Amino acid sequence: MLDLKNSLNNSMTFFSKLSQSKIQLFYEDPTPEEVIEYKNKLLTLMLENSKDMKKLFAFKLETGKQKITGIRDGDLCFDGKKISSNEFDKEHYRADWKELLVKNHNGAKLVLALVDAVFGDDSVFAVKDESLPFDKNSVN
Q1: pTM of the full predicted structure?
Q2: Strands (E) located in 17-103
């Protein structure tokens, strides 16, 4: 069931082929205005920079950086040492955890995947009810 209440505590889990592990990112819902602004900016960047997509990807990374609120404990490390986004984890907390994420090529891929899933056109799609493999409006 889709909950229409905006939340600061959403999560999405990704599989990293490189580390053969699951990585969970926490994020806040975008507002409808933010979705419209994002799509408008994305289209503008695509039209203005069709031969150089660096600005488009930089915009997507910045958008992701603004929406990510945390990482699951134990999912990421830096130089072999666990890092945490939790300020209360005195041993592993890194105030620069977002920067580490977006400045690393594998971390950037995670952020881009999150942005595409949250803001992208492919996050919602139309299907015929008969084709759904589950009961519509079912709740566990």
Answers
A1: 0.81
A2: 21-27, 68-71, 77-78, 81-82
